[in-house]
Amino acid sequence: MDTLTLEIKDDGEGFANPNGKPKIAYFSMEIGIDEHIPTYSGGLGVLAGDTLKSCADLNVPIVGVTLLSEKGYFYQELDLDGNQIQLPFNFNINDFLTLLPSKTSVTIEGRTVHIRIWHYLVRGVNDYIIPVFFLDTNVEGNCEQDREITKYLYGGDTKYRLSQEIVLGIGGVRALEALGYTTIEKYHMNEGHAALGTLELFRRYHDVEKVREKCVFTTHTPVAAGHDQFDMGAAKTMLGDMIPEQIVHDVTFENKLNMTRLALFFSHYVNGVAKKHGEVSRLMFPGYSIDSITNGVHSLTWVSEPFKRLFDTNMPGWRSDPYSLRSAFGIDKNDIWTAHMEAKKNLIDFVNSRYNVGMNYDYFTIGFARRQTAYKRPDLLISDPQRLINIAEKTGPIQIIYAGKAHPNDGSGKESIKNIFRVMKSMNGNMNGKVKIAFIHNYDMAIGKMMTSGVDLWLNTPRRPQEASGTSGMKAAHNGVPQFSTLDGWWIEGRIENITGWAIGTRKSNERESDDDSDRNEMYEKLEKLIIPKFYNDRDNWIRTMRSCIAINASFFNTYRMIQQYVLNAYFI
Ligand SMILES: *Cc1c(COP(=O)(O)O)cnc(C)c1O
Questions:
Q1: What is the SS3 assignment for 287-300?
Q2: Residue 46 beta carbon below 6 angstroms from any ligand 1 atom
Q3: Which atom of ligand 1 is nearest to 447's Cα?
Q4: Whether 227 contacts 257, CB under 8 Å
Q5: CATH number, domain at 493?
Q6: 3-state class (DSSP) for residue 489
Q7: Are residues 61 and 206 in the same domain?
């Protein structure tokens, strides 16, 4: 950090950017740029972080804009029954971020809200540096209520959320101006949270077409209820005269100011985050041209230490060119297994030391870590405990490792954690049990990395078509871990049956919405007949599958390929 800070000079071209003239501003409510900075909640933020890291590696002239969220999303504790306790995350800002002298402000309900700006510098593999700006309203001169706006990610009521979006969108565009950036050509909204920034641009240019030329929008939500919207009356009170009368009709849906509509209206380029999600979005928003760019992950971030060494030896150059992971087919299978066992021991040791479950290095281990919410069906795997036991008796022992937070207002998400805890207690209480379960508290990027690299099989069970993309399975693929998942999001593109993993549901039934009973049945059937026997009895072919995950999926589902598509199709710089 210190050396980076020293290199920064105010050259009049943009205070904080040592590379001179950024052309793209990337706005995201959450950015998971560093596992120690808790200003992200899940996939959206991790994707934003991985995107900016790849831009730094590839010398793409971009800057990131986000909220400080100084108390994070929340720190998750779980009691013995699996009740989730949400604690404010204590994070020492000064250890990671630098406060900049520039300031800006927005108006909310007629009050001036002052914003200060912190930055974090992302250094790429070739030392190209990209700044990420964190907006902070905890400033003297703001009233108590306004000082709280950038405290909790996704906390509070709709008014709190709208205040945050005013700070992110309008405040973000103004912050870049205050920082002296005059060269921004594209404003990329990562999800609709930053859409109010278009109103600030419209105020500047008074011309819808001019704003459109500058805006790019990525939608992430295939479910109508997931799109932010605010009562128009309340929005007008909060925003004052920021909403021009002539566009009200275009950005209103069911009498509400709809952030997705606002972003769609003002963007010349819109995309979904997987091919299927592009299709779903086109059906949801007829009349708009919506492309798709499938998500990826930042390879260097998500490859575990043992696999980094393996790749360095076998595919030198992969760190700055993840396409070279294609040649993983040439790696010796024994070496893949040795690297995998090292990553697996790391995870099993962690789980045993924290949760005293006595898991075994050699037993088949399934991982499931993601937001605990109904559509992802976190408890589908344990929904028939007796059947799971029967399968383990036939095929060999099964270990299951869970992690994931439920949103504080998501009652059914919290219920599934408790449900997992109930089954976990009865399974682990049986001394001769063939099924063992652990639930790791406070899922974050570090745990995500340990899990996606340390299990034998990565499980994902979203109800179609509700998973826009999903990225944790791509992290698993980077560590040679095959995925078993419903055919939704990226898995429709990434799955080659028995070669990169397995599907729950056939391609035909993929056209329908998911049916829990048939998915459950198929999941258990495939585990029993195909997957677990292959692991225990056909190790050579199992490792072959691991190798194809790296060669076929990691070489493609990475943010290098993704950002190159954005540069060509969306930014067009
Ligand atoms: C990768 C990651 C996610 C996103 O995973 P999905 O498969 O998209 O659900 C969420 N949270 C953390 C901490 C992650 O590392």
A1: CCCCEECCCCECHH
A2: yes
A3: 13
A4: no
A5: 3.40.50.2000
A6: coil
A7: yes
Which domain, by its residues, includes 462? 300-557
For residues 188 and 375, give the distance between their C-alpha atoms in angstroms, rounded to a whole number: 28
In angstroms, the CA 387 to CA 491 distance is 26
Is residue 509 very low, low, confident or very high in pLDDT (cuts 50, 70, 90)?
low
Name which of 260, 259, 254, 255 is nearest 281 in CA terms. Answer: 260
Are the beta carbons of 33 and 52 closer than 8 angstroms? Answer: yes
Closest CA to 206 of 244, 178, 172, 164: 244
Select from 155, 59, 138, 57 the least CA-distant residue to 97: 138
470 lines ligand 1 (CB under 6 A): yes
The answer to whether 34 and 96 are in contact (CB under 8 A) is yes
Instruction: Find the 516 Cα to ligand 1 centroid distance in Å.
Output: 23
Total-model pTM = 0.96
The verdict on the CB of residue 414 being under 6 Å from ligand 1 is no
Give the whole-angstrom CA distance, residue 280 versus residue 372: 23
Which pair of structure tokens corresponds to residue 477? 């693929």
Total count of domains within the chain: 2
Greater model confidence, 13 or 520: 520
In the numeric block, which tokens belong to residue 336?
């893949």
279 shares its domain with 309: no
- pLDDT class of 223 with cuts at 50, 70, 90: confident
Assess if residue 4 is contained within a domain: no
Decide: helix, strand or coil at residue 570: helix
∠467-470-471 over CA atoms, to 5°? Answer: 175
* Strand, coil or helix: 501: strand
The reply to whether 159 falls in a domain is yes
Shared domain for 284 and 267, answered yes or no, is yes
Q: Alpha carbon of 278 to those of 212, 288, 306, 511, 514: distances in Å?
A: 20, 11, 36, 15, 19
pLDDT at residue number 227? 86
Backbone angles phi, psi at 206, to 5 degrees: 50, 35
Atom number of ligand 1 nearest to Cα 370: 9
251 CB less than 6 Å from ligand 1? no
Residue to substitute in 31, 35, 37, 472 for testing ligand 1 pocket (most ligand atoms within 8 angstroms of CB): 472
Do 448 and 467 lie in one domain? The reply is yes
Q: Which amino acid is at 355?
A: Y
393 membership: H or E segment, kind and range? helix 385-395
Please answer whether residues 284 and 275 qualify as being in contact, where contact means their C-beta atoms are separated by less than 8 angstroms.
no
Cα(186) to centroid(ligand 1), Å: 27
- Summarize the confidence of residues 480-507 as an average pLDDT: 95
Residue 210 is which amino acid? K
141-162: pLDDT as tens digits = 999 999 999 999 999 999 999 9
User: Could you give the CA distance from residue 323 to residue 344 in angstroms, rounded to a whole number?
Assistant: 25
Cβ count near 127 (within 10 Å):
12
Q: Are residues 328 and 461 in the same domain?
A: yes
Q: Per-residue pLDDT averaged across 98-116, rounded?
A: 97
**Residue 240: closest CA among 116, 147, 367, 109:** 109
DSSP line for 35-47: TT-----SHHHHH
Q: How far is 362 from 348, CA to CA, in rounded Å?
A: 10
| Strand pairing class (483-486; 457-460) | parallel
**Ligand 1 atom nearest to 467, measured from its CA:** 8
